[in-house]
Amino acid sequence: MNFQNLMHTAVRSLSRNKMRSALTSLGVIIGVASVIMMVGIGNSARVAVREKIFTYGSNAMGLESKKKSFTVKDIDDIKRAVSSIKYISPMVGRAIVNTKYQGVLLQSRIRGVNNDFFRIKEWPLLLGRYFTDIEILSREKVVVIGNTVRVELFGAVNPIGKVIQVNNIPFQVIGCLAEQGQAFSGRDQDNVLVMPYTTASVKIVGRNDFNEIFIASFNERMVEKTENEVRSFIRTDRGLAAGVPDDFTITTSKEQLQMAEYISQTLAMLLAGIASISLVVGGIGIMNIMLVSVSERTREIGIRMAIGAKKRDILVQFLIEAVTLSSGGGIVGILIGLGVYYAIALGVGWEFLFSTFSVLVAFLFSCAVGIFFGYYPASKASKLKPIDALRYE
After folding, report:
1. CB environment 94-106: b (16+ within 10 A), e (fewer)
2. Are 213 and 63 in contact (CB under 8 A)?
3. pLDDT tens digits, residue range 86-110?
4. 325 vs 19, 47, 242, 300, CA distance in Å?
5. pLDDT tens, 126-153?
6. Does the pLDDT at position 268 exceed 80?
7. What letter would DSSP give residue 183?
8. How are beta strands 169-177 and 192-196 bridged, if at all?
9. Cβ count near 74 (within 10 Å)
10. CA–CA separation, 65 vs 45, rounded Å?
11. Is there a contact between 191 and 106 (Cβ–Cβ < 8 Å)?
């Protein structure tokens, strides 16, 4: 019997029990759909995380001191010593301050910086302007507000020129930042007040030094060079001998991205492993039903052998039935998985990334499940003796 006839016979046998065939494939459908969803969501999440991290600035880094605080002189010395630095800004901050406007109260973060901060963050304005060098030097009480602050305090009203109370100190709003959304940590980046670092030091924090500095190199390729030169300069400046660990940390976007990708890949592998359990369970279901099918069709097998069918024909036919069940379930699982993944990506606002490779692997794996779990029933059927099969009741 040629392959076409065997295929036709297998499909006809499966179509006699449509409901049983569908239920038999259910495990494979769930397993393949889960794998497709996990791979797709993992890829979309990786892209979303990358975009979030790079809102920090692809050529930016954060310098944080663990012991000795930085001063304005340190910033001038670092910029003078490291020629690959394009922008550098101090960061004077406080996690929570009370912000009030016409009875509406909001708790926000403050960032005391210079104008290089906006260039490092590539943070555009929605309204108004940034502060000037004169306002920084004269410690003017001016503030640029994040989008959450604008919406919560002013609604549809233009906030430019209005005066808000920050810890009961009046500040004039001179600018409003464009929306940034949540950070990688889940923190609302728009619930922020950005003011001159000189003003923040004196009026809010009450100290002139700071523990954090933002730095940007001229381009992404120079980040590592800049990081090494800054580290070398600070170690020399602080007299740290060779072998003594740094008393400061330098964090770049690249390091954050590597950490995030390691975490996402580990989670994706874990979830894919869990999803593959469904494929194994589905394969066991196929084996079970195929064994039942062999018992039900023993006389049919005997008749076919009696009229000339070879053992190989019986083996191939039952293998085709098992692979048809698993591959059919795989196709349905791929369609369901892609549909659910698309709905999730659309709902969350992530990019839908269609992966031909993952679809092909899922389909081939579902076929392999059919071959692996269908071989034993097919082998059992092919080894039946015609005379015993014909006597089977």
Report:
1. beebebebeeeeb
2. yes
3. 999 998 887 688 999 988 999 999 9
4. 12, 35, 66, 20
5. 999 998 889 999 999 999 999 999 999 9
6. no
7. -
8. unpaired
9. 20
10. 32
11. yes
